[in-house]
Amino acid sequence: MLPLRTAVSTSAGLASAAINFLAAVEVAQLTSGHWAWVAILVAGVLIVLAATNFAELNGLYPTAAAIRVWIGRGWNDQLARVASLVYASTVLLVMAADAFVLAQAFGQALPHVPGLLLVALVVAAISAANLRGIRVSGAIQDLNALVLLATLMAFSLAVLWHHPLPPSLPRAAGSGGFWQAVAVGVFIYVGFEWVTPLAEEFRDARSIPKGMLIALGLVAIAYALFTAALEALYPGARGLADSFTPQLVVGRAAMGEIGYWWMMILTLTTAGTTFNGGLSTASRFVYALARERTLPPGWARLNRRLVPARALLGLAALSLALAGVVVASRHYQLLINVGAGVESLMYALTAVLVLSLRRREPNRPRPFRALGGRYGIAAGGVIYLALGVGALLGGPGLLAPAGLLALLLALAWGWVRLGMPRWTQGRAHVQRL
Fold this sequence. Notes:
The protein is mostly helical. It is 75% helix and 0% strand.
């Protein structure tokens, strides 16, 4: 049912969470000059390598199961099940971290209303809309992504028109600062590939690879412009490090109350893109796992509008519960690091899968081919492996993100090796009776 524009809006929307504004501040701090926007564009070039890996794999096997099928065909079925369960959990982590940032923004705009309550109302409204079918959720995604990217670009250009960046050299380019900024900039694009579980919903399977590449270009332009505007007002991001809502601070500094509410509305659209896109794509992925009994098959049931309602509502409830824990503990950075680490490791794994499937299935038609050749793909995999390890070891607390990932892996492995076989056998015995 879905056209190319929804592939673009879903991919761009999932990569445009509210936490991206915090990442832009960190990039500006690391560059210590006026070239943070260059670091974001360089990061965009790197992420395109991963996008072409996903494009080739999606062309081989366009399915809602996505990474589950690709790993199973290119490596090992049991690893595919474990990795898929951990990968699905990252959507919950990102949505919970985004809910924390949104709660802070809502708390500033409406101080007498709990921010988490407003986030819950937004999630409930988006869930209700998603239950009405993929056309409705696609239209919501198209509208939100258009408003988000267009108004962010317009705001940033207006700021730069009145506060142009002074000419300067990239003072951090000769040191590690610039490349650290590039590494952080990569995480601005994280989540773009989650459009692949919607493969069974598109009129043309080629829409997904095309949509991902177009979306990455739009996200690169929008956030590079915003980072440049941020630096024009706050060189080196000084004065923004302690803010959970730097976009609101920048909006007020640029245009007063008009700018503040402009950025507040823009922040609300990130809720629409992140939660709507996350629930619509992750519910299809969970549906696919349940369809093959990696997860309880009840989550594979469709309502009369062909929506996996139980999977969708279950994910919404879990994301809100986790968001409540994050708001209470304020450890949102832990979730961001784990999510970024898992995504980067998955990008590295896709490089392995592309090369493996080229060896195992050389004659299978490939509508798209990953860029870089054998050595370029391998080099990209090494880069993403390093980024993933850095994210897992660079978070709050000694080895805290790595420890949380180890716990997720242990739970997933335990379910696949112990829980899933016993549960499946028990269900089969009940059905025979």
